Amino acid sequence: MIEVRGLIKRYGVKVAVNDLSFDVEPGHVTGFLGPNGAGKTTTMRLILGLDYPDAGTVKIDGKQFASLANPMREVGALLDAKAVHGGRSAYNHLLCLAQTNNLPRRRVGEVLELVGLTEVARKRTKGFSLGMSQRLGIAATLLGDPAVLMFDEPVNGLDPEGILWIRNLMRALAAEGRTVFVSSHLMSEMENTADQLIVIGRGSLLADCTMDEFIARSSGQTVRVLTPQPDVLTKAVTEATPAAPPPTTNADGSLTVHGLTAAQVGDLAFDHGVRLHELTVVRASLEAAFMELTADSVEYRAGDGRPAEQPFPVSEGVN
Amino acid sequence: MAATTQTQPVLTALPPASGRAGFRGTLNSEFTKIRSVRSTYWTLLVLLAVSIGIGAAITGGTAANWSHMGPSDRASFDPTQASVAGLFYLGQLVIVVLGAMTLTAEYSTGMIRTSLTAMPRRVVMYSSKVVVFAIVALVVTFIAAFVSFYLGQALLASTHDTATLSQPNVLRAIAGSALYVTLCGLFAFAIGAILRHTAGAITTVIGILFVVPILAHLLPRTWYQDIERWLPDAAGRALSVTVGPQPDHLFSPWGEFTVFAVYTVALLVVGAVIFRNRDA
Protein backbone atom coordinates (compact mmCIF):
# COMPACT_ATOMS: atom_id res chain seq x y z
CA MET A 1 0.00 0.00 0.00
CA ILE A 2 1.45 3.31 -1.13
CA GLU A 3 -0.22 6.52 0.03
CA VAL A 4 0.72 9.74 -1.73
CA ARG A 5 -0.70 12.98 -0.33
CA GLY A 6 -0.36 16.49 -1.70
CA LEU A 7 3.01 15.80 -3.29
CA ILE A 8 4.72 18.82 -4.85
CA LYS A 9 8.17 18.90 -6.42
CA ARG A 10 9.72 21.85 -8.22
CA TYR A 11 12.97 21.91 -10.11
CA GLY A 12 13.78 25.60 -10.29
CA VAL A 13 10.69 27.25 -11.74
CA LYS A 14 9.40 24.05 -13.35
CA VAL A 15 6.76 22.19 -11.36
CA ALA A 16 7.46 18.50 -11.94
CA VAL A 17 4.83 17.14 -9.58
CA ASN A 18 1.85 19.31 -8.78
CA ASP A 19 -0.22 18.45 -5.70
CA LEU A 20 -0.45 14.75 -6.44
CA SER A 21 -2.52 12.47 -4.20
CA PHE A 22 -3.38 8.83 -4.78
CA ASP A 23 -3.30 5.37 -3.23
CA VAL A 24 -1.80 2.25 -4.71
CA GLU A 25 -3.58 -0.79 -3.31
CA PRO A 26 -2.25 -4.30 -2.78
CA GLY A 27 -3.45 -7.18 -4.92
CA HIS A 28 -3.54 -5.21 -8.17
CA VAL A 29 -1.23 -4.17 -10.90
CA THR A 30 -1.62 -0.40 -10.89
CA GLY A 31 -0.56 1.30 -14.11
CA PHE A 32 1.03 4.72 -13.71
CA LEU A 33 0.46 6.44 -17.02
CA GLY A 34 1.39 9.74 -18.50
CA PRO A 35 3.20 11.20 -21.47
CA ASN A 36 6.96 11.54 -21.33
CA GLY A 37 7.85 14.29 -18.90
CA ALA A 38 4.57 14.01 -17.00
CA GLY A 39 6.39 13.43 -13.72
CA LYS A 40 6.12 9.65 -13.35
CA THR A 41 9.78 9.04 -12.61
CA THR A 42 9.93 12.06 -10.31
CA THR A 43 6.93 10.73 -8.39
CA MET A 44 8.62 7.35 -8.01
CA ARG A 45 11.85 9.02 -6.88
CA LEU A 46 9.86 10.96 -4.29
CA ILE A 47 8.18 7.75 -3.08
CA LEU A 48 11.63 6.20 -2.63
CA GLY A 49 13.15 9.25 -0.97
CA LEU A 50 15.73 9.74 -3.71
CA ASP A 51 14.38 13.27 -4.08
CA TYR A 52 12.83 15.31 -1.32
CA PRO A 53 9.39 16.82 -1.99
CA ASP A 54 8.71 20.54 -1.60
CA ALA A 55 5.41 19.59 0.03
CA GLY A 56 3.35 16.53 0.75
CA THR A 57 4.00 13.08 2.14
CA VAL A 58 4.48 9.53 0.94
CA LYS A 59 3.74 6.59 3.21
CA ILE A 60 4.48 2.97 2.48
CA ASP A 61 2.44 0.77 4.79
CA GLY A 62 2.11 3.80 7.03
CA LYS A 63 5.79 4.73 7.16
CA GLN A 64 8.29 6.84 5.25
CA PHE A 65 10.48 4.71 3.04
CA ALA A 66 13.73 5.71 4.75
CA SER A 67 12.41 4.76 8.17
CA LEU A 68 11.35 1.22 7.23
CA ALA A 69 13.22 -1.30 9.38
CA ASN A 70 14.36 -3.38 6.41
CA PRO A 71 13.57 -1.41 3.25
CA MET A 72 14.24 -4.26 0.80
CA ARG A 73 11.83 -6.53 2.66
CA GLU A 74 9.07 -3.95 2.18
CA VAL A 75 9.77 -2.35 -1.18
CA GLY A 76 11.47 -3.57 -4.32
CA ALA A 77 11.95 -0.82 -6.87
CA LEU A 78 13.45 -0.73 -10.33
CA LEU A 79 13.84 2.81 -11.63
CA ASP A 80 16.61 2.40 -14.17
CA ALA A 81 18.00 -0.96 -15.22
CA LYS A 82 21.25 0.66 -16.31
CA ALA A 83 21.83 2.24 -12.89
CA VAL A 84 24.46 -0.34 -11.99
CA HIS A 85 28.26 -0.29 -11.86
CA GLY A 86 29.17 -1.96 -15.14
CA GLY A 87 32.43 -3.29 -13.76
CA ARG A 88 30.71 -5.42 -11.15
CA SER A 89 29.39 -8.91 -11.82
CA ALA A 90 25.66 -9.58 -11.64
CA TYR A 91 26.24 -11.76 -8.59
CA ASN A 92 28.25 -9.15 -6.72
CA HIS A 93 25.81 -6.41 -7.68
CA LEU A 94 22.97 -8.32 -6.08
CA LEU A 95 25.14 -9.40 -3.16
CA CYS A 96 26.08 -5.85 -2.19
CA LEU A 97 22.40 -4.88 -2.26
CA ALA A 98 21.31 -7.94 -0.26
CA GLN A 99 23.96 -7.32 2.38
CA THR A 100 22.61 -3.87 3.23
CA ASN A 101 19.44 -5.52 4.52
CA ASN A 102 21.20 -8.57 5.99
CA LEU A 103 19.49 -10.87 3.49
CA PRO A 104 20.98 -14.37 3.21
CA ARG A 105 23.57 -14.88 0.49
CA ARG A 106 21.68 -17.85 -1.01
CA ARG A 107 18.93 -15.43 -1.95
CA VAL A 108 21.17 -13.93 -4.64
CA GLY A 109 21.42 -17.28 -6.43
CA GLU A 110 17.68 -17.79 -6.15
CA VAL A 111 16.68 -14.51 -7.74
CA LEU A 112 19.28 -14.96 -10.48
CA GLU A 113 17.71 -18.35 -11.20
CA LEU A 114 14.23 -16.82 -11.22
CA VAL A 115 15.11 -14.21 -13.83
CA GLY A 116 17.21 -16.61 -15.88
CA LEU A 117 20.63 -14.99 -15.38
CA THR A 118 22.39 -17.84 -13.57
CA GLU A 119 24.72 -18.53 -16.47
CA VAL A 120 25.98 -14.93 -16.62
CA ALA A 121 26.02 -14.38 -12.84
CA ARG A 122 29.80 -13.96 -12.78
CA LYS A 123 29.93 -11.76 -15.88
CA ARG A 124 30.39 -8.03 -15.54
CA THR A 125 27.14 -6.20 -16.25
CA LYS A 126 28.86 -3.84 -18.68
CA GLY A 127 28.22 -6.33 -21.47
CA PHE A 128 24.57 -6.95 -20.64
CA SER A 129 21.86 -6.19 -23.18
CA LEU A 130 19.01 -3.95 -22.05
CA GLY A 131 16.84 -7.03 -21.63
CA MET A 132 19.42 -8.71 -19.40
CA SER A 133 19.82 -5.50 -17.40
CA GLN A 134 16.04 -5.33 -16.91
CA ARG A 135 16.08 -8.91 -15.66
CA LEU A 136 18.93 -8.06 -13.28
CA GLY A 137 17.01 -5.04 -12.02
CA ILE A 138 13.93 -7.18 -11.46
CA ALA A 139 16.06 -9.75 -9.63
CA ALA A 140 17.19 -6.97 -7.29
CA THR A 141 13.59 -5.96 -6.53
CA LEU A 142 12.74 -9.55 -5.53
CA LEU A 143 15.72 -10.04 -3.17
CA GLY A 144 13.78 -8.99 -0.10
CA ASP A 145 10.49 -10.71 -1.03
CA PRO A 146 8.80 -7.31 -0.68
CA ALA A 147 5.08 -6.55 -0.39
CA VAL A 148 5.41 -3.47 -2.59
CA LEU A 149 7.01 -3.48 -6.04
CA MET A 150 7.66 -0.48 -8.25
CA PHE A 151 8.83 -0.60 -11.85
CA ASP A 152 9.57 2.48 -13.97
CA GLU A 153 9.00 1.73 -17.67
CA PRO A 154 10.08 -1.89 -17.25
CA VAL A 155 9.39 -3.02 -20.81
CA ASN A 156 11.28 -0.22 -22.53
CA GLY A 157 13.58 -1.75 -25.08
CA LEU A 158 12.52 -5.33 -24.45
CA ASP A 159 11.77 -7.94 -27.09
CA PRO A 160 8.24 -9.40 -27.22
CA GLU A 161 9.26 -12.46 -25.23
CA GLY A 162 10.72 -10.25 -22.49
CA ILE A 163 7.61 -8.06 -22.44
CA LEU A 164 5.38 -11.10 -22.00
CA TRP A 165 7.63 -12.41 -19.24
CA ILE A 166 7.48 -9.13 -17.31
CA ARG A 167 3.71 -8.87 -17.74
CA ASN A 168 3.17 -12.36 -16.42
CA LEU A 169 5.55 -11.74 -13.54
CA MET A 170 3.79 -8.52 -12.54
CA ARG A 171 0.38 -10.18 -12.65
CA ALA A 172 1.67 -13.14 -10.65
CA LEU A 173 3.15 -10.79 -8.03
CA ALA A 174 -0.16 -8.93 -7.75
CA ALA A 175 -2.04 -12.22 -7.53
CA GLU A 176 0.09 -13.07 -4.50
CA GLY A 177 -1.40 -9.99 -2.82
CA ARG A 178 1.49 -7.63 -3.43
CA THR A 179 1.22 -3.98 -4.42
CA VAL A 180 2.54 -3.63 -7.97
CA PHE A 181 3.03 -0.09 -9.28
CA VAL A 182 4.29 0.15 -12.83
CA SER A 183 4.77 3.22 -14.98
CA SER A 184 4.49 3.56 -18.72
CA HIS A 185 3.97 6.25 -21.30
CA LEU A 186 2.09 3.84 -23.57
CA MET A 187 -1.45 2.75 -22.82
CA SER A 188 -1.03 -0.31 -25.01
CA GLU A 189 1.52 -1.70 -22.56
CA MET A 190 -0.93 -1.40 -19.71
CA GLU A 191 -4.00 -2.68 -21.52
CA ASN A 192 -3.35 -6.33 -20.76
CA THR A 193 -1.49 -5.89 -17.50
CA ALA A 194 -2.96 -3.26 -15.22
CA ASP A 195 -6.36 -3.40 -13.58
CA GLN A 196 -5.98 -0.04 -11.83
CA LEU A 197 -4.88 3.17 -13.49
CA ILE A 198 -3.37 6.40 -12.30
CA VAL A 199 -2.92 8.88 -15.13
CA ILE A 200 -0.94 12.07 -14.75
CA GLY A 201 -0.04 14.90 -17.07
CA ARG A 202 2.30 17.77 -16.30
CA GLY A 203 2.60 16.52 -12.76
CA SER A 204 -1.14 16.66 -12.05
CA LEU A 205 -3.57 13.82 -11.55
CA LEU A 206 -5.82 13.27 -14.58
CA ALA A 207 -7.49 9.98 -13.68
CA ASP A 208 -7.47 7.49 -10.82
CA CYS A 209 -9.81 4.62 -11.61
CA THR A 210 -10.04 0.99 -12.61
CA MET A 211 -9.16 -0.04 -16.12
CA ASP A 212 -12.84 -0.97 -16.68
CA GLU A 213 -14.00 2.50 -15.64
CA PHE A 214 -11.45 4.03 -17.92
CA ILE A 215 -12.73 1.96 -20.82
CA ALA A 216 -16.36 2.69 -19.99
CA ARG A 217 -15.87 6.43 -19.71
CA SER A 218 -13.58 6.90 -22.61
CA SER A 219 -15.44 9.38 -24.74
CA GLY A 220 -14.71 7.74 -28.06
CA GLN A 221 -17.72 5.37 -28.12
CA THR A 222 -19.68 5.51 -31.41
CA VAL A 223 -22.23 3.36 -33.25
CA ARG A 224 -21.67 2.06 -36.74
CA VAL A 225 -24.84 1.64 -38.82
CA LEU A 226 -25.35 0.10 -42.24
CA THR A 227 -28.68 0.95 -43.84
CA PRO A 228 -30.09 1.22 -47.36
CA GLN A 229 -31.71 4.55 -46.30
CA PRO A 230 -28.79 6.60 -44.89
CA ASP A 231 -30.39 9.97 -45.65
CA VAL A 232 -33.54 9.22 -43.66
CA LEU A 233 -31.55 7.94 -40.69
CA THR A 234 -29.12 10.86 -40.78
CA LYS A 235 -32.04 13.30 -40.67
CA ALA A 236 -33.70 11.40 -37.80
CA VAL A 237 -30.49 11.23 -35.77
CA THR A 238 -29.67 14.90 -36.30
CA GLU A 239 -33.17 15.88 -35.11
CA ALA A 240 -32.89 13.61 -32.08
CA THR A 241 -29.46 14.86 -31.03
CA PRO A 242 -29.03 18.45 -32.13
CA ALA A 243 -26.08 18.90 -29.76
CA ALA A 244 -24.00 15.98 -31.01
CA PRO A 245 -21.99 16.10 -34.21
CA PRO A 246 -24.05 14.82 -37.15
CA PRO A 247 -23.49 11.24 -38.35
CA THR A 248 -20.58 10.83 -40.72
CA THR A 249 -20.50 8.61 -43.78
CA ASN A 250 -17.71 6.08 -44.01
CA ALA A 251 -15.98 4.90 -47.16
CA ASP A 252 -18.01 1.68 -47.24
CA GLY A 253 -21.27 3.64 -47.08
CA SER A 254 -21.92 2.95 -43.41
CA LEU A 255 -22.73 5.75 -40.95
CA THR A 256 -20.92 6.57 -37.75
CA VAL A 257 -23.35 7.93 -35.15
CA HIS A 258 -22.06 9.98 -32.21
CA GLY A 259 -23.78 10.58 -28.88
CA LEU A 260 -26.34 7.75 -29.03
CA THR A 261 -26.24 4.18 -27.79
CA ALA A 262 -26.83 1.27 -30.17
CA ALA A 263 -30.27 0.74 -28.58
CA GLN A 264 -31.25 4.38 -29.14
CA VAL A 265 -30.18 4.19 -32.78
CA GLY A 266 -32.14 0.95 -33.25
CA ASP A 267 -35.29 2.47 -31.69
CA LEU A 268 -34.93 5.59 -33.80
CA ALA A 269 -34.66 3.50 -36.96
CA PHE A 270 -37.71 1.48 -36.01
CA ASP A 271 -39.74 4.67 -35.33
CA HIS A 272 -38.83 6.05 -38.77
CA GLY A 273 -39.26 2.75 -40.57
CA VAL A 274 -35.61 2.58 -41.55
CA ARG A 275 -34.24 -0.90 -42.27
CA LEU A 276 -30.90 -1.68 -40.62
CA HIS A 277 -28.37 -4.18 -42.00
CA GLU A 278 -25.77 -3.65 -39.29
CA LEU A 279 -25.65 -1.99 -35.89
CA THR A 280 -22.26 -2.12 -34.11
CA VAL A 281 -20.79 -0.39 -31.06
CA VAL A 282 -17.36 0.93 -31.91
CA ARG A 283 -14.98 1.65 -29.06
CA ALA A 284 -12.13 3.99 -29.59
CA SER A 285 -8.92 2.25 -28.67
CA LEU A 286 -7.63 2.81 -25.17
CA GLU A 287 -4.61 4.41 -26.72
CA ALA A 288 -6.85 7.01 -28.36
CA ALA A 289 -8.71 7.63 -25.12
CA PHE A 290 -5.43 8.03 -23.26
CA MET A 291 -4.09 10.41 -25.86
CA GLU A 292 -7.27 12.44 -25.73
CA LEU A 293 -7.04 12.61 -21.95
CA THR A 294 -3.44 13.70 -21.92
CA ALA A 295 -3.48 15.82 -25.07
CA ASP A 296 -3.51 19.04 -23.08
CA SER A 297 -0.68 17.99 -20.85
CA VAL A 298 1.88 16.71 -23.29
CA GLU A 299 5.26 18.20 -22.50
CA TYR A 300 6.95 20.63 -24.84
CA ARG A 301 3.88 21.59 -26.79
CA ALA A 302 2.67 25.18 -26.80
CA GLY A 303 -0.37 25.49 -24.55
CA ASP A 304 -3.56 27.15 -25.79
CA GLY A 305 -4.56 28.38 -22.36
CA ARG A 306 -7.62 26.15 -22.02
CA PRO A 307 -8.23 24.81 -18.55
CA ALA A 308 -7.61 21.07 -18.27
CA GLU A 309 -10.84 19.13 -18.56
CA GLN A 310 -11.41 16.21 -16.28
CA PRO A 311 -13.55 13.68 -18.14
CA PHE A 312 -12.27 10.81 -16.04
CA PRO A 313 -12.98 10.10 -12.41
CA VAL A 314 -10.49 11.06 -9.76
CA SER A 315 -10.68 8.69 -6.83
CA GLU A 316 -13.03 9.82 -4.09
CA GLY A 317 -10.80 8.56 -1.26
CA VAL A 318 -8.20 11.15 -2.05
CA ASN A 319 -8.42 14.87 -1.67
CA MET B 1 -0.10 -18.24 -14.83
CA ALA B 2 3.27 -19.15 -16.24
CA ALA B 3 5.22 -16.85 -13.98
CA THR B 4 3.46 -18.12 -10.87
CA THR B 5 4.64 -21.62 -11.52
CA GLN B 6 8.14 -20.18 -11.89
CA THR B 7 7.96 -18.04 -8.77
CA GLN B 8 6.94 -20.67 -6.28
CA PRO B 9 9.61 -23.34 -6.54
CA VAL B 10 12.62 -21.07 -7.06
CA LEU B 11 12.23 -18.46 -4.35
CA THR B 12 12.22 -19.96 -0.90
CA ALA B 13 10.79 -18.00 1.97
CA LEU B 14 13.14 -15.56 3.66
CA PRO B 15 13.97 -16.11 7.30
CA PRO B 16 12.37 -13.41 9.45
CA ALA B 17 14.33 -10.19 9.78
CA SER B 18 16.73 -10.09 12.69
CA GLY B 19 16.53 -6.44 13.59
CA ARG B 20 16.91 -3.32 11.59
CA ALA B 21 19.08 -2.84 8.53
CA GLY B 22 22.00 -0.69 9.64
CA PHE B 23 25.77 -0.32 9.84
CA ARG B 24 26.73 -3.99 10.04
CA GLY B 25 25.08 -4.98 6.78
CA THR B 26 26.00 -1.76 5.02
CA LEU B 27 29.68 -2.16 5.98
CA ASN B 28 29.57 -5.66 4.44
CA SER B 29 27.88 -4.21 1.38
CA GLU B 30 30.44 -1.45 0.94
CA PHE B 31 33.26 -3.94 1.35
CA THR B 32 31.68 -6.10 -1.37
CA LYS B 33 31.42 -3.02 -3.59
CA ILE B 34 35.05 -1.99 -3.22
CA ARG B 35 36.45 -5.51 -3.67
CA SER B 36 34.23 -6.40 -6.65
CA VAL B 37 35.45 -3.87 -9.22
CA ARG B 38 38.75 -4.09 -11.04
CA SER B 39 39.51 -0.38 -10.72
CA THR B 40 40.16 -0.92 -6.99
CA TYR B 41 42.84 -3.51 -7.69
CA TRP B 42 44.41 -1.50 -10.48
CA THR B 43 44.55 1.63 -8.36
CA LEU B 44 46.03 -0.16 -5.38
CA LEU B 45 48.56 -2.01 -7.52
CA VAL B 46 49.64 1.27 -9.06
CA LEU B 47 49.89 2.75 -5.57
CA LEU B 48 52.17 -0.07 -4.42
CA ALA B 49 54.23 -0.02 -7.61
CA VAL B 50 54.73 3.75 -7.58
CA SER B 51 55.48 3.96 -3.86
CA ILE B 52 57.87 1.03 -3.71
CA GLY B 53 59.36 1.69 -7.14
CA ILE B 54 60.14 5.36 -6.55
CA GLY B 55 61.47 4.62 -3.07
CA ALA B 56 63.73 1.96 -4.56
CA ALA B 57 64.88 4.32 -7.32
CA ILE B 58 65.82 7.05 -4.84
CA THR B 59 67.59 4.77 -2.37
CA GLY B 60 69.28 2.69 -5.08
CA GLY B 61 70.40 5.84 -6.88
CA THR B 62 71.79 7.28 -3.66
CA ALA B 63 73.71 4.10 -2.91
CA ALA B 64 75.22 4.11 -6.41
CA ASN B 65 76.18 7.76 -6.01
CA TRP B 66 77.35 7.51 -2.40
CA SER B 67 81.09 7.56 -3.14
CA HIS B 68 80.70 10.87 -4.98
CA MET B 69 78.71 12.55 -2.21
CA GLY B 70 80.41 15.05 0.06
CA PRO B 71 80.34 14.83 3.89
CA SER B 72 77.59 17.43 4.25
CA ASP B 73 75.36 15.66 1.73
CA ARG B 74 75.98 12.37 3.51
CA ALA B 75 75.17 13.94 6.87
CA SER B 76 71.92 15.45 5.69
CA PHE B 77 70.83 12.27 3.88
CA ASP B 78 67.69 10.83 5.49
CA PRO B 79 67.54 7.11 4.68
CA THR B 80 64.02 6.72 6.06
CA GLN B 81 62.55 9.68 4.25
CA ALA B 82 64.24 8.66 1.01
CA SER B 83 62.79 5.15 1.21
CA VAL B 84 59.18 6.28 1.78
CA ALA B 85 59.32 9.41 -0.45
CA GLY B 86 57.60 7.53 -3.28
CA LEU B 87 54.61 6.87 -1.03
CA PHE B 88 54.03 10.34 0.35
CA TYR B 89 54.97 12.29 -2.79
CA LEU B 90 53.35 10.16 -5.49
CA GLY B 91 51.27 7.57 -3.64
CA GLN B 92 48.96 10.39 -2.58
CA LEU B 93 48.22 11.13 -6.24
CA VAL B 94 47.03 7.56 -6.72
CA ILE B 95 45.03 7.24 -3.51
CA VAL B 96 43.24 10.47 -4.41
CA VAL B 97 41.78 8.71 -7.46
CA LEU B 98 40.45 5.78 -5.43
CA GLY B 99 39.18 8.02 -2.65
CA ALA B 100 37.29 10.29 -5.00
CA MET B 101 35.85 7.42 -7.02
CA THR B 102 34.53 5.58 -3.97
CA LEU B 103 31.55 7.90 -4.00
CA THR B 104 31.63 9.63 -7.39
CA ALA B 105 31.53 6.31 -9.28
CA GLU B 106 28.11 5.75 -7.71
CA TYR B 107 26.95 8.92 -9.42
CA SER B 108 28.69 8.41 -12.76
CA THR B 109 27.27 4.89 -13.11
CA GLY B 110 23.85 5.74 -11.65
CA MET B 111 24.38 3.03 -9.04
CA ILE B 112 23.57 5.56 -6.30
CA ARG B 113 19.85 5.30 -7.15
CA THR B 114 19.95 1.54 -6.77
CA SER B 115 22.09 1.72 -3.63
CA LEU B 116 19.80 4.23 -1.92
CA THR B 117 16.75 2.19 -2.85
CA ALA B 118 18.25 -0.70 -0.90
CA MET B 119 19.62 1.40 1.97
CA PRO B 120 17.83 4.75 2.12
CA ARG B 121 19.48 5.79 5.38
CA ARG B 122 22.07 7.96 3.73
CA VAL B 123 24.30 8.80 6.67
CA VAL B 124 24.66 5.06 7.36
CA MET B 125 25.75 4.45 3.78
CA TYR B 126 28.09 7.46 3.73
CA SER B 127 29.86 6.53 6.94
CA SER B 128 30.11 2.89 5.88
CA LYS B 129 31.85 4.00 2.72
CA VAL B 130 34.25 6.18 4.70
CA VAL B 131 35.08 3.35 7.11
CA VAL B 132 35.60 0.73 4.39
CA PHE B 133 37.73 3.05 2.28
CA ALA B 134 39.81 4.08 5.31
CA ILE B 135 40.46 0.45 6.25
CA VAL B 136 41.48 -0.52 2.71
CA ALA B 137 43.67 2.58 2.37
CA LEU B 138 45.35 2.02 5.75
CA VAL B 139 46.16 -1.60 4.98
CA VAL B 140 47.61 -0.83 1.57
CA THR B 141 49.52 2.31 2.59
CA PHE B 142 51.06 0.56 5.61
CA ILE B 143 52.15 -2.32 3.36
CA ALA B 144 53.57 0.21 0.90
CA ALA B 145 55.35 2.11 3.67
CA PHE B 146 57.00 -0.87 5.33
CA VAL B 147 57.94 -2.60 2.07
CA SER B 148 59.40 0.67 0.80
CA PHE B 149 61.31 1.16 4.02
CA TYR B 150 62.86 -2.30 4.20
CA LEU B 151 63.60 -2.42 0.48
CA GLY B 152 65.18 1.03 0.69
CA GLN B 153 67.38 0.07 3.63
CA ALA B 154 68.49 -3.09 1.82
CA LEU B 155 69.42 -1.02 -1.22
CA LEU B 156 71.34 1.42 1.01
CA ALA B 157 73.27 -1.36 2.78
CA SER B 158 76.51 -0.56 0.95
CA THR B 159 76.48 3.00 2.33
CA HIS B 160 76.40 1.85 5.95
CA ASP B 161 74.00 4.75 6.51
CA THR B 162 70.76 2.89 7.00
CA ALA B 163 67.88 3.33 9.39
CA THR B 164 66.27 0.83 11.75
CA LEU B 165 62.89 0.98 13.42
CA SER B 166 64.48 1.52 16.81
CA GLN B 167 66.12 4.78 15.75
CA PRO B 168 64.36 7.99 16.75
CA ASN B 169 61.49 9.13 14.52
CA VAL B 170 61.84 6.25 12.04
CA LEU B 171 58.65 4.44 12.97
CA ARG B 172 56.86 7.80 13.06
CA ALA B 173 58.06 8.57 9.56
CA ILE B 174 56.92 5.20 8.18
CA ALA B 175 53.53 5.14 9.91
CA GLY B 176 53.09 8.86 9.37
CA SER B 177 53.59 8.53 5.62
CA ALA B 178 50.95 5.82 5.46
CA LEU B 179 48.54 7.81 7.61
CA TYR B 180 49.15 10.97 5.59
CA VAL B 181 48.41 9.20 2.30
CA THR B 182 45.28 7.62 3.80
CA LEU B 183 44.16 11.10 4.88
CA CYS B 184 44.75 12.35 1.32
CA GLY B 185 42.36 9.61 0.14
CA LEU B 186 39.71 10.59 2.68
CA PHE B 187 40.20 14.24 1.73
CA ALA B 188 39.47 13.24 -1.88
CA PHE B 189 36.46 11.17 -0.78
CA ALA B 190 35.01 14.27 0.90
CA ILE B 191 35.65 16.50 -2.12
CA GLY B 192 34.02 13.78 -4.25
CA ALA B 193 30.94 13.85 -2.01
CA ILE B 194 30.74 17.61 -2.35
CA LEU B 195 31.31 17.79 -6.12
CA ARG B 196 29.79 14.41 -7.17
CA HIS B 197 32.08 14.33 -10.16
CA THR B 198 35.16 12.12 -10.49
CA ALA B 199 37.34 14.29 -12.68
CA GLY B 200 36.30 17.48 -10.90
CA ALA B 201 37.07 15.98 -7.51
CA ILE B 202 40.47 14.63 -8.53
CA THR B 203 41.44 17.90 -10.17
CA THR B 204 40.34 19.89 -7.13
CA VAL B 205 42.24 17.70 -4.67
CA ILE B 206 45.42 17.74 -6.73
CA GLY B 207 45.02 21.50 -6.97
CA ILE B 208 44.77 21.80 -3.20
CA LEU B 209 47.57 19.35 -2.38
CA PHE B 210 50.06 20.30 -5.11
CA VAL B 211 49.21 23.60 -6.75
CA VAL B 212 48.25 25.63 -3.69
CA PRO B 213 51.64 25.00 -2.00
CA ILE B 214 53.43 26.05 -5.22
CA LEU B 215 51.35 29.22 -5.44
CA ALA B 216 51.99 29.86 -1.77
CA HIS B 217 55.70 29.78 -2.50
CA LEU B 218 55.22 32.76 -4.81
CA LEU B 219 54.05 34.88 -1.89
CA PRO B 220 56.53 37.19 -0.13
CA ARG B 221 58.79 35.06 2.03
CA THR B 222 57.49 36.20 5.42
CA TRP B 223 53.90 35.66 4.37
CA TYR B 224 54.72 32.17 3.20
CA GLN B 225 56.42 31.38 6.49
CA ASP B 226 53.28 32.50 8.30
CA ILE B 227 50.90 30.29 6.35
CA GLU B 228 53.13 27.30 5.56
CA ARG B 229 52.14 25.43 8.70
CA TRP B 230 48.47 25.66 7.70
CA LEU B 231 48.91 24.11 4.25
CA PRO B 232 47.49 20.59 3.93
CA ASP B 233 50.66 19.10 2.41
CA ALA B 234 52.85 20.20 5.35
CA ALA B 235 51.85 17.08 7.27
CA GLY B 236 53.57 14.76 4.79
CA ARG B 237 56.83 16.71 4.92
CA ALA B 238 56.86 17.13 8.68
CA LEU B 239 56.07 13.48 9.42
CA SER B 240 58.66 11.95 7.12
CA VAL B 241 61.75 13.80 8.39
CA THR B 242 63.96 11.76 10.73
CA VAL B 243 67.41 13.37 10.32
CA GLY B 244 68.35 16.87 11.41
CA PRO B 245 66.03 19.58 12.65
CA GLN B 246 62.34 19.77 11.82
CA PRO B 247 61.49 22.14 8.96
CA ASP B 248 61.21 25.72 10.15
CA HIS B 249 57.86 27.41 10.55
CA LEU B 250 55.94 24.12 10.91
CA PHE B 251 54.17 22.69 13.90
CA SER B 252 55.42 19.38 15.29
CA PRO B 253 54.90 16.38 12.96
CA TRP B 254 51.76 15.23 14.77
CA GLY B 255 50.65 18.85 15.03
CA GLU B 256 50.81 19.13 11.24
CA PHE B 257 49.01 15.80 10.98
CA THR B 258 46.27 17.18 13.21
CA VAL B 259 45.91 20.26 11.00
CA PHE B 260 45.36 18.07 7.92
CA ALA B 261 43.11 15.67 9.85
CA VAL B 262 40.92 18.57 10.99
CA TYR B 263 40.57 19.81 7.40
CA THR B 264 39.69 16.31 6.27
CA VAL B 265 37.14 15.65 9.00
CA ALA B 266 35.53 19.03 8.40
CA LEU B 267 35.20 18.31 4.70
CA LEU B 268 33.87 14.81 5.42
CA VAL B 269 31.17 16.36 7.59
CA VAL B 270 30.28 18.89 4.88
CA GLY B 271 30.15 16.00 2.38
CA ALA B 272 27.87 14.00 4.70
CA VAL B 273 25.46 16.91 5.12
CA ILE B 274 25.32 17.41 1.36
CA PHE B 275 24.94 13.67 0.75
CA ARG B 276 22.05 13.51 3.19
CA ASN B 277 20.20 16.63 2.12
CA ARG B 278 20.62 16.90 -1.64
CA ASP B 279 18.43 15.01 -4.10
CA ALA B 280 20.25 11.88 -5.21
Q: Considering DSSP H and I runs of 4 or more, what fraction of the residues of chain A is helical?
A: 25-40%
Give the number of helices of chain A: 11
How many strand units of chain A? 13
The chain-level mean pLDDT of chain A equals: 88
- What characterizes the major β-sheet of chain A? 6 strands, mixed
Q: Structural class from helices and strands of chain B?
A: mainly alpha
Task: Walk me through the structure.
- The complex is a heterodimer of chains A (319) and B (280).
- By secondary structure, chain A is of the alpha/beta class.
- Chain A is 33% helix and 24% strand.
- Chain A has 2 domains: 2-217, Rossmann fold; 222-282.
- Chain A has a 6-stranded mixed sheet, with helices on both faces.
- In chain A, α3 crosses α4 and α4 (106-115) crosses α5.
- The longest helix of chain A is centred in the middle third of the chain and has 16 residues, at 160-175.
- The model of chain A is unreliable at 302-310 (pLDDT under 50).
- Chain B is mostly helical.
- Chain B is built from 12 helices and no strands.
- The interface between A and B is large, with 56 and 49 residues.
Concise structural overview:
The complex is a heterodimer of chains A (about 325) and B (about 280). With about 325 residues, chain A is of the alpha/beta class.
Q: Can you tag this structure with a few keywords?
A:
heterodimer, A: 319 residues, alpha/beta, Rossmann fold, 2 domains, six-stranded mixed β-sheet, four-stranded antiparallel β-sheet, 11 helices, 33% helix, B: 280 residues, mainly alpha, 12 helices, 76% helix, 0% strand, globular
SSE blueprint:
The complex is a heterodimer of chains A (319) and B (280).
Chain A: E1 2-11, E2 14-24, E3 29-33, H1 40-47, E4 55-60, H2 71-74, E5 75-78, H3 90-100, H4 106-115, H5 130-142, E6 148-152, H6 160-175, E7 179-184, H7 187-191, E8 196-201, E9 204-210, H8 211-217, E10 222-226, H9 230-240, E11 248-249, E12 255-258, H10 262-271, E13 278-282, H11 286-294
Parallel strand pairs in A: 3-7, 3-8, 5-6, 6-7
Antiparallel strand pairs in A: 1-2, 1-4, 8-9, 10-12, 10-13, 11-12
Helix pairs in contact in A: 3-4, 4-5
Chain B: H1 2-10, H2 23-35, H3 38-65, H4 71-76, H5 79-109, H6 111-118, H7 122-155, H8 170-195, H9 198-217, H10 221-227, H11 234-240, H12 253-277
